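Hello again,

I reread your note about wanting to compare the complex against the isolated chains. To keep things tidy I'm splitting this into two emails, and this first one only covers the full assembly. Below are the input lines as submitted, including protein chains and any nucleic acid or small-molecule components. They are followed by the predicted structure of everything together. The single-chain runs will come separately.
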Amino acid sequence: MTELKKKEKIGTPDTADRQSGAVMVVGGGIAGIQSSLDLADSGFKVYLLERTPAIGGTMAQLDKTFPTNDCAMCVISPKLVGSGRHLNIDLITNAELMGIEGDAGNFTVKVKRHPRYVDSEKCTGCGACVQNCPVSRIIYAVELDEVELERKDLDIVMPLLEDSAGTRGSLMPVLQAIDRHYGYLPKDVIRFISGKLDVSISEIYNIATFYNSFSLVPKGRHRISICMGTTCYVKGAEKIMQKLCRDLGTEPGGTTEDLRFSVEAARCIGCCSLAPAIMVNDRVYGRVKLSDLSGILKEYE
Ligand code: FES
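Full-complex prediction:
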């Protein structure tokens, strides 16, 4: 628990009128960021408090904004950068407001900072610590001893690694080839190639979980992607998702028991004029109606 030092108090009793000109904004979503920028531009010292490790909130996770269909990141990115660089704004992230005392113009707040395990003064967000984490390297070494691929898997994986000449830059094509062959990235194969390419497991998981095209669990032979982008959503994509999942007995992100179909939500697939749109493997179906679904599924039986 940290009590902000006297000079950081929201309001100082030393000032003649007991008004300080410092403000704390709680919540680093788009509203909190914009409020902080407006206040800071007006000359107030702003402490922007955010519970999660980074500001941005839900809007930073959106594709488009309603009703203008503007790109969410295009709107919020300049504000994120602006609030990070503004001399009048102090970002206090990964922290919670625990108490507040005083009255208008002279508040003292108690803030609980959660540990970050890195020196935030020095961190540039480069990710090198993840790749060189001594803890994960120990786990990686221990796990590596246990990895023994079956002959049939070795016959598939070794030629891929030989083609790549064992270089780090070849990780992506190797992962793509493995995903193509197995339909997902099996855990043992990931551990095996991490040793062969000398790339840490955490780095491979970083990539595997960043790209939607990779999966860590078995996928169906046919991948059905239902576009949940703004245009498709307002044209009924959610109902399509519900009906499809009901018909196939699975859920969004799931795979049917016979491993025939996987169903996943996608962001705008670039066919907004055909909304609502779905993709099965590489084929796009536009202006899909609920009554079309059984016919589409039959094509892949
Ligand atoms: S929003 Fe669905 S294709 Fe663009």
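For quick reference: Residues 1-18 have pLDDT under 50 and may be disordered.

B.
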